[in-house]
Amino acid sequence: MRHRARRSWRQSDSLLVRSLAGSRLTQVALLVLLTCIGLAIAAPWIAPQNPFDPAALDLLDAFTPPGGEGISGHSYWLGADDQGRDVWSAILYGLRMSVLVGGLSVLLSMLIGVTLGVLAGYRGGWLDVLIMRIADVQLTFPVLLVALLIFGIARGVLPSGLGDDVAVYVIIVAIALSDWVQYARTVRGAVMVEKQKDYVAAARMLGRSSPGILFFHVLPNVLAPVLVIGTISLALAIVAESTLSYLGVGLPPTQPSLGTLIRIGQGFLFSGEWWILLFPSLMLLALALSVNLVGDWLRDALDPACTEVPVTDTPKPLLVADALDVIFDTYRGPHQVLHQVSFHIAPGEILGVVGESGAGKSMTGLAVAGLIEAPGRLAHGSVTLEGVRIDTLQGDAIRRLRGRRIGMVFQDPLTSLNPVLTIGQQLTETIRTHLPLSEGGPPNGRLPCWPKSRSRSPSGGSPSIRTSSPAACVSVWPLPWRCVPTPAC
């Protein structure tokens, strides 16, 4: 069951890589996002100055325009504000706080929402009703209003001397508690579907505890939508923090974020010092937009309904059936049962033929394999296998292909299996026919595997229409010998 989850994640990774390779916009957005995160992490080392260290500031450099040089001799790429702080350095430190607050609040809200959603979906009953009713009530209020309420209550309860020291933690908790509902509702729905599946019942039969089933079996299968919501919520959390800081109820001036810088710069917009507002606003816009674009891409890439199949070069088909007509000669005259049936199958491809009983599905397979007996006949058309026309082959020529390059699995075992032979003898009949083995079995009790060169085409796969070539390795029971891999496998 854990292997099942790992396989699904590997398949998702492959889809993500192909989707990312085909989207230039997403590549640019991801590059911008990673650049912003990298700048936020490296801010203490790459910033020209610590903008919040009074000893590093020079009031004589206040309002230095972008690209100018202050009286102190320092150059300011993006200008300086009213206190002589380098705007570029302030942006780096503000970006650091915005990313930190946004990321931690998303992780906390994800932890709360996923935990409550898993409990509600798995346990059900009164617990499910209680959690979902609380979620419904919270959804009636805007997220920003809930965050303001929680932030205000926390600042009122805490001692006044601790306000600025714990402001970061308070705003993280406020944003997280205002945004857990979407995680809970999404996970609850997914868990209610997953818990009905057989692998959960099998885990119960093995004696696994409920927490073990939840966190090792159910949870890994519902994480994909959670990651998508988390990515999109990161932008919302960053914007929510910036909004609170802009309103003056977020981070203090000693720990400013991009929202705080925008609030400070807004006061100088109409006095000519436009750069104090413009550059922090552009950084916030780039960060939020890149996160949203990456989140939208991740949502579409993990949604099968939105996944586009990449267009690739069509490989040369292995099996081609062209305009097949099958006619049965009766005393009333010819009776046509197949008319102009055409298809082609590429290496590794499987073609499914769907139709009601008597529509001609089995007759198509018989026509391809050359097994139509009188009074039926292939009146028109051709069947080509790996570039060789096989519908005209006779005798040993077609017999050497059957069972080795093309085969057919019949529908009814009561009539397709020989009642005077054992199952094991019939399963190994193909191998004994095409390999030099005696009826008593191979020496040393070993049955060599069908070589890959004979069961697979050089192009990479065998065609199949409810037909298949012999398996690469066959395990047979109840024969007195066993199948073991050989170097040919």
The low-confidence parts are 1-10, 443-489
Number of helices: 19
State the distance separating the first and last CA atoms: 27 Å
Helix-strand pattern: HHHEEHHHHHHHHHHEEHEEHHHHEHE
What would you call the quaternary organization? single chain
Total number of strands: 8
| Structural class by SSE content | alpha+beta
Helix content: 40-55%
Mean pLDDT: 76
Radius of gyration: 35 Å
Biggest β-sheet: strands ordered side by side in the sheet: 4-3-5-6
Dominant shape: elongated
Largest sheet: 4 strands, antiparallel
| Strand fraction | 5-15%
Question: How does this model look, in words?
Answer:
This protein is of the alpha+beta class. The chain is 50% helix and 10% strand. It is built from 19 helices and eight strands. The strands form three sheets. The chain has a four-stranded antiparallel sheet, with helices on one face. Strands 1-2 form a two-stranded antiparallel sheet. The chain has a two-stranded parallel sheet with strand order 7-8. Helix 2 packs across helix 4, helix 2 packs across helix 13 and helix 8 runs antiparallel to helix 11. The N terminus and C terminus are likely disordered.
Which short descriptors sum up this protein?
489 residues, alpha+beta, two-stranded antiparallel ribbon, single chain, disordered C terminus, 19 helices, 4-stranded antiparallel β-sheet, disordered N terminus
